Amino acid sequence: MSRMFLAGAVALGLGAAPALAAEALPISISMAPAAANRASAQMGDRLSFRTVIRNDGTTPVGGVIGWVSLLRTDPGQEQPIDLEDWSAHKAITIPSLAPGESVATDWPFRLIASGTYRAVVSAATRDGAALATSPFADFTVRAKPLVESRRVLPVALGLPLLIGAGMLVTARRR
Amino acid sequence: MTAAGQIARKEAGELLLDLRGQAWLLAMACALSAFSLLLVGSAELSLLDNAQVVYDMAGIATALGALLALVVGVDGIGGERERGSLVPLLLTPASRGAILLGQIGGVAMAWAAMLALAVPFLWAVGSTGQNLWDGMAVLVLLGTPVVLGFGLFGLGLGARLGSTRAALLAGLIGLLVAASPLLIGPSLRQSALGGMFDAVNPFSAAVNGYDLVIIDSQGLLSQWMSLAHTLAWLALMLWFAHAAFRRVRR
Asked: Does the UniProt entry include the keyword Protein biosynthesis (chain B) (predicted)?
């Protein structure tokens, strides 16, 4: 049934998507890791990537919005990442970009979880119908034990015992 | 020593040297222990980022501090009334303002004791990560007005309501509602109603400040809005406690 519907749609010209393809945005985005990035990052480290958003067109572009996305690419774990705790710097707006003008932006990340990731910066404009994207920046985050039980156990067990001992002393004095 | 100082000293002595007060501190320490043991005992929770754990622990310490302050506050007037010691206190030459100030001193001592309990736990879970010291600083900066405000809320309820039980119940319900951001987290801000609640709740102001400083590594000085919010709550509760205590008859 669905095949028949699809065939009918194509016959009616509804499948002529290429004709409706949006005009490419005259914007290019380059992306490079910061020089200070560690070669082998682990959880808790910080990484930063620098993008340069450039107007390659011949007319000014207004209302440019750039935003960063992060994807996890481990086999079986592929998913977009909520940047809530990864970065406080998630987007920029550029009121106007003249022909040939470029804006450099640093996108810092705090590495919250281990895995293999892919960062990408996208840009759209107020009026344009297309999307510009940077090349992918791939990185791997090594796992790290975060809460050390060796430190927690003495405090978690010792402090109540200490207060309990203090109570015993108080009770005996009475 | 002034009358207010003497009352504060008596309240602090009851908390630190009296068996009943020590039992409260033991209960607080056990609660912090249970939380930190949960962190190392659960595979998933133990993978939380240090900053997240310090943030959670700061929120728990604030909630427990507010609970302790509320109980100390209700006991400061309501408890004195039930023990028959409020009228003799009111008959002393000490002014009502001095008595209230002394009771606030007792609440402040309870919060200081709670902070002293929380510091080793914060160190234990957060010393291998980031923003531990900033986390402790923001806990003192934003937690203090919130906790003292709940102590004053308890003092006001104890003075206003005839029964200590009713005052405690009303105070606990208020605290439970206010501390809901600890359970619901940032998702609270995503609805209009949650956003409005967040905007007026001093507890939200404190935990949002903890989030920004401990997790997002923002500076302490940038938290002036949260500080203003919590100070407004403190001023409101000071007015409430003062007005309620003025109405107490000898």
From this structure: no
Q: Which residues of B touch A145 (CB under 8 A)?
A: 46
pLDDT digits (tens, 9 = 90+) for A109-157: 988 888 999 999 999 998 888 899 999 999 999 887 566 677 888 899 9
The CATH superfamily assigned to A23-146 is Immunoglobulins (2.60.40.10)
How far, in Å, are A133, B6, B157 from residue B74 at the CA level? Answer: 60, 19, 7
Q: Do A151 and B52 touch (CB under 8 A)?
A: no
Q: Of A146, A147, A159, which is closest to B29 when you measure between CB atoms?
A: A159
Query: Bridge partners of A33?
Result: A49
Q: For chain A, which residues make up each domain, given as ranges? A: 23-146
Domain boundaries, chain B: 3-246
Evaluate the CA torsion angle A63, A64, A70, A75 in order and state its sign: positive
Give the CA radius of gyration of chain B.
Answer: 18
ipTM comes to: 0.79
